[in-house]
Amino acid sequence: MEEAKGNSPGNSKRWSLQGMTALVTGGTKGIGHAIVEELAELGAIVHTCARNKVELDACLLDWKAKDLRVSGSVCDVSSRPQREELMETVNTLFHGKLNILVNNAGG
Fold this sequence. Notes:
Elements: E1 21-25, H1 30-41, E2 45-50, H2 53-65, E3 70-74, H3 80-93, E4 100-103
Parallel strand pairs: 1-2, 1-4, 2-3
């Protein structure tokens, strides 16, 4: 039985996120890192945050080398002022349009 075109796993057209925006907290390690890459590979414009600037900068360089549209900022999401600053940044970057939120930051 032949699979219908456009429904096969891995078909990027079926899963296109072109024009979508995403925020992934805790995006420099583990599952968060994988989510950032997957969303960006599917066409989303992604912003991520992490507490560690060195790790964040290293990830941003790697994603840039892969031509992925990912930006990032340092943020401890347990801090209300830092969360507010993060959302102001995201609002500016995405012109008020956030389609996907992945709250992945651990404690």
